[in-house]
Amino acid sequence: MNNILLAFGLTLFAGLSTGIGSALAFFTKKTNTKFLSVSLGFSAGVMIYVSMIEIFYKSKETLIAELGLKTGSWLTVASFFGGMFLIAIIDKLVPSTENPHEMYKVENIGDSKVQSDENKLLRMGKFTALAIGIHNFPEGLATFISALQDPAIAIPITVAIAIHNIPEGIAVSVPVYYATGNRKKAFLYSFASGLSEPIGALIGYLILMPFINNILFGIVFGAVAGIMIYISLDELLPSAHEYGEHHLAIYGLVSGMGVMAISLLLFI
């Protein structure tokens, strides 16, 4: 029970960090895009390293122990690419003009390029909140399952997801705020988009709970690794590049990998 509460708490924290982005958009005249670039690169480094070195390995180890070397290895790889396929399908179902991956541009958090049409801005903010909510749903399940299996792995994953949710909060709140002039409404839309992560965790867990065993854990862990890699390559790194210089994103990426590697070594 304690593990379940911890897992849900971590997922809730990661999801609601969109509110931090919303607050930054309101209370800073100019967002520090270089810091965001390094932070997003750092998040990508954490998620790529932990996915390939730790989560994928745990998936393979569990499935081989249950099903044997050949079947376990094949199922691990199938689960990994299945996770990528799942998040890619979700990505595809969201129109590009309302997809948060297409919204994370520097002009969306600055003053000079905000469009004057208030109705269009409000619509953009609402659809961005919806799109981010859809994308955050599998992230919530991934964080929750990771925490349920191994809290030591889940904590850095939670921090990484929380960091990349900050610009999501900016992407939602800025157009709504500029359209309505209402900070409270803009914050609520941003806050609501982050709620999909703990909701995704809760629904996913309730659906999977009757079937949970070592084989299912192995499959879900493989899929989680695939989801994490896809998010990193499709969302975090391109966003990091958009916010700052190319090398800032790479420095952040390598730093994230290094910190993740050291944190895992400390738990040996």
Kindly describe this structure.
By secondary structure, the chain is an all-alpha fold. It has one domain (34-266). Helices cover 85% and strands 0% of the residues. The protein is built from eleven helices and no strands. It has helices at residues 2-16, 18-27, 33-67, 69-93, 100-103, 118-149, 151-180, 183-194, 196-208, 214-243, 246-266.
Give a count of the beta strands, DSSP E runs of length 2 or more. Answer: 0
What is the CA-based Rg, rounded? 18 Å
Taking the alpha carbons of the first and last residues, their distance comes to 25 Å
Overall, the morphology is globular
What is the count of DSSP helices, taking H or I runs of 4+ residues? 11
Q: Summarize the main sheet.
A: none
The SS-based structural class is mainly alpha
> What is the helix content?
over 70%
Mean pLDDT, all residues = 77
Beta-strand share of residues: under 5%
Count of domains? 1
